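The protein record quoted in full:

***
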Amino acid sequence: MATKVELLTAFKSAIKPDVAKFSQADANSAAINAILETYNLKDASTREILAKQPEVFAIIEQAIEELLPAAITDIMGGYAEVQTFARDAEPLFTIKRVGKARARLSIVEGARGGIYRARRLDNKNMTVPVKVMTVGTFVTLEEILLGTLSLAELMDNIAQGFVEQIYIKTVEAMRTAKTLAPAANIKSGNGVVAADLDALIRIAAAYGDPIIMGFRSAIAKINNQTGWTGVTPNVAQADVDEIRKQGFVGLFHGTPVVELPNYLIDETNSGFVFKEGDLFILPTAAKPVKIAMKGDLHIEETAHPSGSREQNAHRLVGVGLMLANNVCVYTDTSIDGGKY
């Protein structure tokens, strides 16, 4: 029989196994066996399994809670700083190397949802307000014990759900930054003009190693044609291969290109959430996006009228953007569509 600490260790190993020691399947099997032995569920009925589900899920919650920030950092860590805070703590980020010549603003969500406001940083600190984010998953303890859904898959579903919502908040904040950045940081044109994009990269590079973030419609137009006469071909073979494999180049004049996901508004597939014409050029060293995760993760079961059950993972999360004259935006005016 395993203790709570041993179960927590087993669950964390199943979620993120040390592949140098054992496979993910073995780690998940070990976690399942620990549950079966500890709660005497080897020959249990569905009713008996359901009776133990809250207790087991409480430990799974703790395991996911501890590993979730790292999972989000793995996906967004190139330009985002993720910190966790206790339930009674203020989500406060300390901004380093604040020069007097560089007016810094923080862009955080206001009291009214969906509206981002800018304000001066106070004493080099940035407070990020948090709100409850919820991710729904359809999973029961019985499915986990049967191996229908592994703990790693459950973790991935929850992490991806939070990342989707964080992306939406990040883009909303960057749209606000576009209205506040210096005129030199904003350029536009019909299509992607390489010279203008180079100029914005040079500005962002003054604050750290830059990256280009954008939606597929815009980044697909970025290319590294040399413009040199008498050179055939005038595009590197690596670019051709990347376009064939992923639809866009991974580097533009040495600057990494990152695709932002877009999401369908509803099940009619009639439109996307975001307008896709903007390319955001951000310095990664500054990690301008701040993600605060506060308190505990809580998984709550919701019963549907149809008889199905949904597990809703709740977590207090806040997203803010540090603007230090370092956010640059290029807008392709030929791209339309999108709600926001």
Summary: The chain is about 35% helix and 25% strand. The chain has a mean pLDDT of 84. The longest helix spans residues 46-76. The two ends are 53 Å apart (CA to CA).
